[in-house]
Specification:
The chain is an alpha+beta fold and 336 residues long. Helices cover 33% and strands 21% of the residues. Strand 4, helix 1 and strand 5 (91-95) form a beta-alpha-beta unit.
Amino acid sequence: MVENGSKNQLYAGVVEIDITPPVGVAMAGYGARKQNSAGIHDPLMGQVLYLSINNKSLMLITCDLIGVDLNFTTGLRNEIAKDLGIPKDHIMIACSHTHSGPQGFLPDEPVHVSLKDEGLVEITKRKLTGAAKWAVSKSEPVSLAIGDVDLMGIGKNRNDPEKGLIDPQLTVLRFDAASGKPAAVLFNYGCHPTVMGHENLQITSDLPGAARAALKRQYPDCVFMFTNGASGDVSTRFTRREQEFSEVQRLGLLLASGVLQAMMKSEPVAGAEISGERVKVQLPRRDLPQEEEIKSSIQTLEEKVKILKEQSAPHGEIRKVFTQLEGAQGQLILLN
C-alpha cells in the first residue's frame, strides 16, 4: 500500500478505463432479446477511486455492467489486496446495471440466461486490477465535499407510478484537487438506468453514460462515477417518452443537471475517516404457487398483454404486465 505522510490529509487517485466488449457478444438484461450485439453506440467504462488518510485506504470500483457475481468480486478483491495491500473489506465493486452490456458476468436465472464468457470476464478483471494500480500511483491531496438534491422526472415506481415508493435523493461526493477543480465526483441515484429496450443491439452505457458524457463537457479533467441507490422497483418505465438514444440523451442531461446542482450545493467535510465493512445478507426464498395456478396466471397475463397491444396502450402499462408474465414463466421453470 502507498503511504502518504501528511497526517489527517485525505489523498485520492482516480482513473477511468474502457471495458467495452467486442461486437458480437451476447447481451444481458432482457429475456426477450434473441440476437447478439451488432455494434457499439458508446463505450462501456470502468472507474477506480483510491482514497487514503492516516495510512488507511479504501477503493471504489464502478463499471458499466449489468452486475457481477461473487466469484468476480472475490477474485478482483484478492488480486488488489495482494498487489496493493488494501484490506479486502475496504474494496467495493459497483455496477451501473446497464441492460445493453455483455452477458457472462452473472449466473443463470429463469428466463434470463447468462452465457458464460470466461475470456471476457478474465480480461475485464485484469483491466480493473491494472486500473487499481494506476489509481494508487496517481494519489494526490484532495478535499472532500458532499451535496444532495431531490431529482424528479427520471425514476418512478414501475408498478405504481403515482403512489409507489421511490427515493428521489441524488447524493454527490466531490473530491477537489489542490487547484480547487474536481478530480473525481461520485454520484448516487436510485433508479434502474434502463432507457433502451430489448430491440436495441448496440452496446451502450445507457443513462449513466449519457450523464457522465454531459458532465465531462463541463469538467473534462474530472472522472465521474455512478452508483445505484435503492432501485428495486424504480425505473424510467413511466418517465421515458420512447426507447431511443435521443431519449437517453434527454434523461442523461436531466441526471447531469442534478449532479451539477448537488456539486454547487456541496459542503466541505472536515476530519474525514476511512473504514469499510462487508456484510453477507441472507434473503429468504419465497414459496412457489402450485403448477396449475402458475399456468393459469401465465395464460391470463398472455391474454392481457395481447389486449393491451391491440388497444395501443402506453408502453409502460404493457411492460408492467409483461414483467409479471416473465416472473410467472420463471416460476414455472423453477418448479420443474
